[in-house]
Amino acid sequence: MFDTHCHLNFKTFDGKVSEVVERAKKAGIRHIIIPGTDIQTSKKAVELTTQFDNVYAAVGIHPHHIYSYNVERKTWNVKKELAEVEKLLTHPKVVAVGEVGIDRHYYDKTKYTEYRIDETFINQQKVFLRLQIDLALQYKKSLILHNREAKKDTLSILREVWDKSIEGRSVFHCCEPDGELLDFAKQHNMCIGVDGDITYRKDKQEFIKKVPLEMLVLETDSPFLHPEPLRSQPRATRGPNEPKNLKLIAEFIAKILHISLKELAEVTEENSKRLFAVT
Ligand SMILES: [Zn+2]
Ligand SMILES: [Zn+2]
């Protein structure tokens, strides 16, 4: 199996990445992608890939963290900030730009004081997204898209900058259950990323039945989004979500799609390898 999205570069995993990767391997998860969310976590992702086989990085600035350019730095130069991302793109284990996108969700828990979503902020997210997609095209990398409550903005930018060369190389990570997103993905040969929340969200359980199997990729989004039954366990004992739990997600999906775990594991692994052009 292939965990296409987990943040082993986050603080929760400091000093524990080796054991986490080992446990993943034992559970049958042989490939892992670590996406960056800002410059620091992108660098960390790249650094981690050098320590393990079959662990790859994506680099980029997450829309939520565009906020640091919005408020905390009065003057900023997008191209200069992105030059840092660009430098990392030449590393052989960097397979994608990500995670990048548009996010209109209001986060209660955020390091940014007085966090608010206004059109200035959204416009800055759009500036960064366009340029980061350009980088993916320029460096021939795959693209990990984060869209949260911002379907219209995301799709309009994708329609604007879409290029044939990214066909088959991009994914709506943690895809919202939405017919319009699925139609766009079908028309543009994209993948749909599915996470542990499918184990308790009825809307996602219905949605996945409409997703062609050849578009499906799995992800844990560790340390977030524990699948059931872990989600219902006390926070203190369950620990952070981690790649080995991809197996729980796969088992659940295989059951609702009425296919074997083996078939689901094989198909999604193949899809993921194609998506990120890894072997
Ligand atoms: Zn995301
Ligand atoms: Zn993420």
In short:
The chain has 279 residues and is of the alpha/beta class. The protein is built from 11 helices and 8 strands. The protein has helices at residues 17-26, 39-49, 67-72, 78-88, 119-138, 151-161, 179-187, 202-208, 235-238, 246-257, 261-276; strands at residues 2-3, 31-35, 55-59, 94-103, 142-148, 170-173, 191-194, 216-218.
Describe this structure in words.
With 279 residues, the chain is α/β, with parallel strands linked by helices. It has one domain (2-276): Metal-dependent hydrolases (TIM Barrel). It has eleven helices and eight strands. It has helices at 17-26, 39-49, 67-72, 78-88, 119-138, 151-161, 179-187, 202-208, 235-238, 246-257, 261-276, and strands spanning 2-3, 31-35, 55-59, 94-103, 142-148, 170-173, 191-194, 216-218. It has an eight-stranded parallel sheet. The longest helix has 20 residues, at 119-138. It is globular and about 50 Å long. The chain binds zinc ion (2 copies).
| Distance separating the two termini | 13 Å
Order of helices and strands: EHEHEHHEHEHEHEHEHHH
User: Structurally, how many domains make up the residues?
Assistant: 1
Largest sheet: 8 strands, parallel
CATH class: Alpha Beta
Derived from helix and strand composition plus strand pairing, the structural class reads alpha/beta
- CATH homology group: Metal-dependent hydrolases
Helix content bin: 40-55%
Q: Number of helical runs? A: 11
Work out the radius of gyration: 18 Å
Give the names of the bound compounds.
zinc ion
CATH architecture: Alpha-Beta Barrel
**How many beta-strand runs?**
8
CATH fold descriptor: TIM Barrel
Uncertain segments of ≥5 residues (pLDDT<50)?
Answer: none
| Order of neighbouring strands in the sheet with most strands | 1-2-3-4-5-6-7-8
Average predicted local confidence, pLDDT: 95
Strand content: 5-15%
Approximate shape: globular
